[in-house]
Amino acid sequence: MAANELSSILSRVVEIKADYDTRLLAQQLGTNYRSLMYWLRGERQLPAELLPRMCLLLKNYEALDFLESQAGRVAFKLPEPDITLERELVAVSHLIREVGEALESVAETLADGVVEESELRTTIPKLEAVIQECASLKYLLEDLSKKRKKKTKNHL
User: Fold this and answer.
1) Which of the following CATH numbers is that of domain 2-70: 1.10.260.40, 3.90.870.40, 3.40.50.720, 3.40.50.1000?
2) Taking the CB of residue 69, how many other CB atoms lie within 10 A of it?
3) Predicted structure pTM score
4) Which of 8, 66, 102, 109 could form a disulfide with 119 if both were Cys (CB 3.0 to 4.6 A apart)?
């Protein structure tokens, strides 16, 4: 079942990127067009090692997000390694705004004591965005700390 859903997601993503040449995608993945089409139609399983590259090439991570959700996890994009203090502050500001929006959405969802399907469709993505931002910020802070330790160690 999950394999069919994965191929369905990939097929939809490739269709959305109509300007992306499917033959070029196959070539960039190091495979042939026929194999790629089998994978997109769900007739064969896509080799797992090709999925991250495919997502990068298409600039769409829905397929990886789907697999993460199947494992009960939430994925996030790692921050760029050469981030400046200014960009770090922008990231924190972004996180604070998203937390506020998510909490407001949760409050609205719970206000009447009943959680409707439509409310979930609005609230869950906001909560997931906050989780992703927090995880990304955690990584960023750890990275900045490591860089600071290296600089202090090199100056001694």
Assistant:
1) 1.10.260.40
2) 12
3) 0.60
4) 109
